[in-house]
Design brief:
Blueprint: H1 2-20, H2 45-49, H3 53-66, H4 91-144, H5 151-198, H6 206-260, H7 268-278, H8 292-297, E1 302-305, H9 314-327, E2 333-340, H10 345-368, E3 376-383, E4 390-395
Parallel strand pairs: 2-3
Antiparallel strand pairs: 1-4, 2-4
Length: 396
């Protein structure tokens, strides 16, 4: 339990700083004075007003198609209702009632966090639409021709900068929400552990254990729901952070366009980012999963053995990957879920499923640390020498 709390505290303290800092591997799925020339006359306010709405709309659509904003998650996280229980009058029955009330409080927190999430997403979407509308208007005017340093375009550029800053504020809101959810995740784990421990108390009747079984199932579902919420928040933050960084480069290039009075096009960084998203966040040079023979012979950078419920791997993983990136800034990584190859078919299937869950947890930690997802490949296999579920990380 202490390991779980330490791990959650690490995420709460490190996640915002990693995502918002300027480190070199900040992120941008699962399994398998020169010569003068004659300048055009300054554009009057009437000329600007005469630009048709149809032309602006078409330009906006074109801009969005070239570099669309990242797709935010659309899940709604609402816990299922808690099954009511009856008072049995026993000490264990009182404990069950207390645990049920604590689970109800936890679910109320999740409802509120879900409402905050949907509100933040709507704000980000509206801000993004205003930003792209403003940028489209600037590019439309530049495309038909204007004067260098047109003050109308400068005002529009400033407004676009304001909207982009608001998008950055949205990332901060996502981070704050993620910290709150991580805290509830730690409490949910504690609540599940307490529920399971209650089975060992003496003085219970059959009805107490029947209610405990139901409460354990509902707590498990709540834990899964919180993990899904954390995953989606992590993905939203990662995509938005990379996208806002790309758009800042675009605005810098657009500023040069306004100064020259002619459109220069999007920045090179934006083109790379767009190609990554069009390929599903995987570029043409992305890693491919290792073969089983390579796993047998290659030395892993990190081996994480999940031989107990809560394995505090984040600090060691961050240190190892940081050292690697200092020596090889362009390094790519293979993340392999390993499960034992011995056991009956049911045990093999269960271990394989658990090892993939562990790998997903490690992958989420890596992306939260700022590693671009397209530089990490995921795969799974079994090994004869494995005695427990493991996650291996290899450098390529």
């Amino acid at each position: 339990m202490i390991g779980m709390l330490i791990r959650k505290l690490f995420l709460i303290l490190i996640l915002p700083s990693l995502i918002l800092s300027g480190c070199s591997f900040i992120s941008d799925r699962v399994f398998p004075g020169g010569e003068t020339s004659e300048l055009p006359p300054p554009a009057s306010a009437t000329e600007v007003a005469e630009l048709s709405d149809e032309s602006t709309s078409a330009k906006e659509e074109s801009e969005l198609s070239k570099n669309p904003p990242p797709q935010l998650g659309n899940s709604s996280f609402k816990p299922a209702p808690i099954t009511p229980g009856i008072e049995t009058g026993t000490f264990v029955g009182q404990k069950v009632s207390q645990l049920r009330n604590e689970l109800s409080q936890l679910q109320n927190n999740i409802f509120k966090q879900n409402e905050r999430l949907q509100k933040i997403r709507n704000q980000v979407i509206q801000t993004s639409q205003r930003y792209h509308g403003t940028v489209a208007a600037i590019q439309t005017r530049l495309q038909v021709g204007t004067t260098p340093g047109n003050p109308v375009l400068i005002d529009q550029w400033n407004q676009a900068q304001v909207e982009l800053d608001r998008m950055g504020e949205g990332i901060n809101l996502f981070n704050t929400l993620a910290n709150s959810v991580a805290s509830d995740s730690a409490f949910a784990a504690f609540l599940l552990e307490s529920t399971q421990a209650t089975f060992g108390l003496s003085g219970a009747i059959d009805e107490d254990h029947r209610q405990l079984v139901i409460l354990e199932d509902e707590t498990n579902r709540t834990v899964v729901l919180i993990d899904r919420l954390l995953n989606e928040l992590s993905e939203d933050v990662s995509r938005q952070t990379a996208y806002v960084g790309s758009e800042r480069s675009n605005l810098t290039t657009l500023s040069a366009s306004i100064k020259n009075g002619e459109i220069l096009g999007p920045s090179l960084r934006s083109r790379i980012f767009t190609s990554l998203r069009n390929d599903g966040n995987v570029d043409n040079n992305t890693t491919r999963p290792l073969s089983n023979s390579s796993i047998q012979s290659k030395q892993p950078l990190v081996v994480i053995r999940f031989d107990r419920p809560d394995v505090p791997f984040e600090r060691a993983l961050f240190a190892a990957m940081s050292r690697t990136l200092e020596q090889r800034p362009n390094a790519q990584f293979d993340l392999v879920a390993i499960s034992p190859s011995k056991g009956n078919p049911a045990e093999l299937a269960l271990n394989s499923s658990k090892s993939k869950d562990h790998a997903a947890r490690v992958f989420r930690a890596i992306t939260d640390m700022g590693m671009p997802a397209n530089r990490v490949s995921l795969s799974s296999t079994t090994l004869d020498r494995a005695v427990t579920n493991e996650v291996h990380i290899y450098v390529r």
